[in-house]
């Protein structure tokens, strides 16, 4: 993944997801971390999109937080910093594909949200 393909808000979401994975001792940054990060931003378009289709943000926040809490954890001095998992890479690939299809040069948070749904359906 090339970070220059991401909008500033998308980069911020990835940074928040990575920080959460590191804080929780998760061995990889997973799609659950990204969803969690996207719904933390009250000013983000991802929240607006969810609300526009009738999805309660508070419920998604709770579900995302629980999903992240249920992820495997590792500890110890030999544990490396978490890297994006294969599942998260599929999410990003789906978002990039959609951006390309739309003629967009950057991947916005709403495309990451779409990538979560598309990659999760595979």
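-> sequence recovered:
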């Amino acid at each position: 993944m090339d970070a220059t393909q991401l909008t500033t808000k998308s980069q911020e979401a990835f940074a928040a997801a990575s920080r959460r994975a590191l804080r929780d001792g998760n061995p990889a940054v997973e799609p659950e971390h990204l969803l969690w990060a996207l719904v933390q931003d009250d000013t983000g378009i991802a929240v607006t999109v969810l609300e526009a289709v009738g999805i309660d943000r508070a419920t998604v926040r709770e579900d995302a937080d629980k999903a992240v809490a249920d992820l495997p954890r590792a500890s110890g001095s030999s544990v490396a910093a978490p890297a994006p998992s294969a599942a998260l890479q599929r999410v990003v690939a789906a978002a990039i594909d959609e951006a390309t299809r739309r003629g967009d040069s950057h991947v916005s948070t709403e495309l990451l949200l779409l990538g979560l749904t598309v990659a999760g359906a595979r």
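The two ends are 20 Å apart (CA to CA).
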